[in-house]
Amino acid sequence: MAKxxxxxxxTFLTLCLAFAASTAFAAxxxxxxxxxxxxxxxxxxxALKGWHVxxxxxxxxxxxxxxxxxxxxxxxxxxxxxxxxxxxxxxHKRFEHSNWGMMVGVRFETKGMKTDATVKNYHMEAVNEDxxxxxxGAWTGGVRTKVRNNYLTFPILATYSIGKRxxxxxxxxxxxxxxxxxxxxAHDGYIRDIDPTGTxxxxxxxxxxxxxxxxxxxxxxxxxxxxxxxxxxxxxxNLQWGLNGIFPSDFESVTFDLYPIYATLGFSYVF
Length: 271
What we know:
Elements: H1 2-34, H2 38-47, E1 51-65, E2 73-80, E3 85-94, E4 100-128, E5 134-162, E6 166-193, E7 200-209, E8 217-228, E9 233-242, E10 259-270
Antiparallel strand pairs: 1-3, 1-10, 2-4, 3-4, 4-5, 4-7, 5-6, 6-7, 6-8, 8-9, 9-10
């Protein structure tokens, strides 16, 4: 028993010494990490050489629309741009001995609207509010639509500086829609079965929701400019023009392409 106790004591002391040594070694390493090396600063300066980090925020104003407006849409009775925010982080680099540069970034943004339109022989697929089932055909009457899509957008822009205060930019953008809504209602009208020559039926209200059919990937062109009001603060205005529709090409419930076209008004802070 004494021999066993002796072995256990030596083992315990050995573990204690090993733990103390490892703790001292870790503390020494931590102290060294707290003392930044000159090479670390050099690497950081090299990584950011010529690049200026910027943060931007603004509001999107526009709509999701067919181009041109189809003849079935006889008039826009009301339009509500809703509250659409845009928050962006990016970096800008101006080439040496040149007014040209490039800008890249990542942006969270919302693009939405509410409209009420009067249409005639407008293709409609909706669910009748009275529970009588789905209605499909040529609708004549009012159509209220709500669009609200959230995107993660990546702009890749060429820039050109005009003097010390003005800068214009243009280039493509690529967006991933991670949450979207496209819904609405047909109201106060009638529908003809299948096509404009079909059987007529009066409908007071029918609802539709195509949110699950929205396209996830979007791309388009962005162009705009900014004015440097202060040393670090600029006012900006950009136009984003989507080049693919919000629905896939094989989606048949909406018979024409809808493109997101929005302007962003806001400000940016350059570090």
